[in-house]
Amino acid sequence: MDREEGLTAVDNVVTKFNTYEDFLDSQITTVDLYYLEDESLARQLVELGYRGTGEIVTREDFEARKAAIETASLAERTQKK
């Protein structure tokens, strides 16, 4: 099985965004910011699952998956050498 085929939806989110805040920001629309007038409040609503267009991903899950993918990537590079 190819590495790309084995990725879950959360893994795709983790590889697409560098930070958890970048992920949260991607779920916030300009309309959200217009009505809420506060980016941190908009991020909290996405984090809690009240707002956003995608899957709910907690900060802990995001960071754990990010670390696991980086470890797997490092192991793969080391194995190739």
How helix-rich are the residues, as a percent range? Answer: 55-70%
**Structurally, how many domains make up the residues?**
1
Number of helices: 5
Radius of gyration from CA coordinates: 15 Å
Strand content: under 5%
Average pLDDT confidence is 83
Structure class: mainly alpha
Query: What distance lies between the first and last C-alpha atoms, to the nearest angstrom?
Result: 21 Å
Count of beta strands: 0
Order of helices and strands: HHHHH
Describe the largest sheet: none
Judging from the principal axes of the Cα atoms, what is the shape? elongated
- Which ranges are low-confidence, i.e. pLDDT below 50, for 5 or more consecutive residues? 1-6
Task: Please characterize this protein's 3D structure.
With 81 residues, the chain is mostly helical. The chain starts with 8 loop residues before the first helix and ends with a helix. α1 (9-16) packs across α5 (59-80) and α2 crosses α4. It is 68% helix and 0% strand. The chain contains 5 helices and no strands. The chain has one domain (3-79).
